[in-house]
Here is the input.
Amino acid sequence: MHMIFRAIFAASLLPALAVSPASAQAPQPQQPAKIIGDWGVHCAAAASPAPCEMQQTATQSKTHRRVSSVSIALVPKQNRYILQIAVPLGVALSKGMKIIATGYNGKAMAYRRCDSAGCYVEGLSDAKTIDALGGATGAAKIEVASMNGRTVDLPFSLRGFADARKEMEDRAREKAGSAPAAPPATPAATAPQTDTTEDTAPQP
Here is the structure.
């Protein structure tokens, strides 16, 4: 999730979901990610209503292009979450997308926007939904429909989800001034990425 989108989205929140990232001027600098399992946790250097996120990105093995990403950020003052899921272009927008894992069968979510890099579900989520996803086991996937009607599964990993979530929440609350300061964590160099196959992306 781009930090600048999350900051603008969180600041507007919300009572209405009318903000577009097109209104952003420039990306905010980010602190280096801390890698926990298959998730990266990082925070914006500048002040933000949702200062930290946990994120995972899947890429194509040959081109290294993004196939999908899942990003979760906490808005500490509201105790709510901002969820962004990115998938490739070529999806059937009217079908929406779902997250499915062992013990978790999410509801269909509507796309909010598309750009040259893909299509996105973006919006607020409550703790109950994030709890349910964190309690799932086994392989997880984003289920989308292609323009030709074929169901396509985009896998992602839940390994390290609970610990990454705690790290993200603790750092977000610390930066928002709603929790005592904790010793800084040693950052890792990059956020995690997982390779996937060329034919994973939906084809129009």
Q: What stands out?
A: The longest helix spans residues 161-176. Residues 31 and 190 are 10 Å apart (CA to CA). Confidence is low (pLDDT under 50) at residues 1-28, 179-191. The longest strand covers residues 66-75.
